[in-house]
Specification:
two-stranded parallel ribbon, alpha/beta, 8% strand, five-stranded mixed beta sheet
């Protein structure tokens, strides 16, 4: 039945092996999810360990690069111990800031790396080593590029890349003799890292916008479905109310002839009643014209007996169905190959007022249509009972037949449960729907008689 995903068989993709296989894919989704300004990386990740992961990774980078930077600057480049310690801290510790403020962290690291390159021009053993960027500074800088690419805009990333290249070019004018130039290497690697992470962020932004639009479209679709179903119900109830108004008009017009010797003031009172009833009928016809002005009854639901196909249509002239026609509805369903068992209490159609009579029929009609669509071949029981206070409509079906073919992802028109809920709400009743343990589905509607009769009058 429509909108009942819980009744579908268990999706094999939700089994533990499948979940384990999809874990890298889910992490890629987290990686593509952009973080907002002043928001830590992965702040909107679903799991706590994913939100903590950037801090852990950058913390490991700092703890690894800090002693390595000091050792290399001291032992290989023969820079002073004080300079080595200061540069090691300045080039690595700002990486911790990159989780929440990658752009300020980049400024600090770039300044520290540039100062380090200037200091190394006076080191005792700079010849034969990498300059202006040491291997440790390149590793830290690339980690910073990942944080920048996942956070900043494309324009900012291009600016960072160009500034990196420009600083390397400027430092090239002060290049010591015999060094291995790494300016071009960092320029190429930083551009590659920014391009890849920026592309991931762009995909995440696009998917977020698509998800927002889909959410808006879904809300609009649900709203449109609800309005269409209400318009359909209003068109059907027009016939019910129009019948009562017509009876009032006929009785008021014929009163002077059925009751001779009536005083003149009484005649005038009956004439006023008849005129008011005729005016009300005219206003109702105008309202019905407005409801049908959206394309000749485009609001008809997914059932097989939608009311009011349009002005002049055949169904517009047919009387509205009720509990008395449920027997015919079940027989037609059985002829279509669906096994249905009906239990119809005697006198239910006479006890129910018009609104309840019509609502009960439409609920059974929609429930059977959904059984045929989503559980073909399922054993189905339809029960309509009543007492002095309410009419109870119950439709229960088992799981689909083993050899039945069900369209994957079939969801109907979306009018099924919406239409039932609106009809039950109209009569002041309650609706209970949901899957059964054996894979079937249950629809139970309680339609009170007293409230409905007051609404119909």
């Amino acid at each position: 039945m429509s909108d009942r995903d819980e009744a579908c068989p268990r999706d094999p993709r939700t089994t533990p092996p499948a979940r384990a296989a999809r874990a890298p894919m889910r992490f890629t989704v987290v990686l593509r999810t952009p973080a907002r300004a002043a928001e830590p990386l992965f702040a909107r990740a679903p799991k706590a360990w994913q939100r903590v992961l950037p801090y852990v990774v950058l913390g490991i980078c700092v703890l690894s690069l800090l002693p390595a930077t000091i050792a290399v600057l001291t032992n290989d480049y023969k820079a002073g111990g004080g300079w080595a310690g200061a540069l090691g801290v300045a080039q690595t510790v700002p990486l911790l800031l990159a989780v929440t403020r990658p752009l300020p962290a980049w400024v600090l690291v770039l300044v520290a790396d540039t100062v380090g390159a200037v200091v190394l021009t006076h080191a005792d053993k700079v010849a034969g080593h990498a300059w202006p960027w040491t291997p440790m500074s390149i590793v830290g800088y690339l980690a910073l590029m990942i944080c920048l690419g996942l956070r900043e805009s494309i324009r900012t990333l291009i600016g960072v890349w160009l500034v990196t290249g420009a600083v390397g070019v400027v430092l090239g004018f002060f290049e010591p003799d015999g060094v291995t130039t790494t300016a071009a290497l960092l320029f190429v690697l930083s551009g590659s890292f920014l391009a890849v992470t920026g592309a991931l962020r762009g995909v995440g932004d696009a998917q977020q916008r698509i998800a927002e639009q889909e959410s808006i479209s879904e809300a609009e679709r649900a709203r449109r479905t609800l309005l269409e179903e209400r318009a359909r119900i209003a068109r059907e109830l027009h016939d019910v109310v129009a019948h009562h108004m017509s009876v009032i008009t006929v009785q008021a017009d014929s009163a002077p002839y059925r009751l001779p010797g009536m005083a003149e003031p009484v005649r005038e009172e009956f004439a006023a009643i008849a005129a008011s009833a005729r005016e009300s009928l005219s206003e109702m016809r105008r309202l019905l014209t407005v409801l049908r002005s959206d394309g000749n009854g485009s609001g008809t639901g997914s059932g097989d007996g939608g009311a009011a196909a349009g002005p002049g249509g055949a169904s517009e002239l047919a009387p509205q169905p009720g509990i008395g026609r449920i027997q015919q509805l079940v027989e037609a369903t059985v002829r279509a190959g669906q096994p249905v068992e009906l239990s119809l209490a005697a006198g239910a159609e006479r006890a129910a007022p018009p609104a309840v009579d019509l609502s009960a029929y439409r609920i059974v009609q929609e429930a059977l249509a959904n059984v045929v669509r989503h559980a073909p071949g399922a054993e189905t029981r339809v029960s309509v009972t009543h007492d002095a206070e309410e009419v109870l409509v119950l439709v229960v079906n088992g799981p689909a037949a083993r050899d039945a073919v069900v369209e994957p992802g079939a969801s109907g028109t979306g009018h099924g449960l919406v239409g039932m809920q609106e009809r039950v709400r109209l009569t002041g009743g309650t609706l209970d729907t949901g899957p059964l343990p054996d894979g079937g589905f249950r629809v139970a509607a309680r339609l009170p008689l007293n409230d409905a009769s007051e609404d119909a009058s």
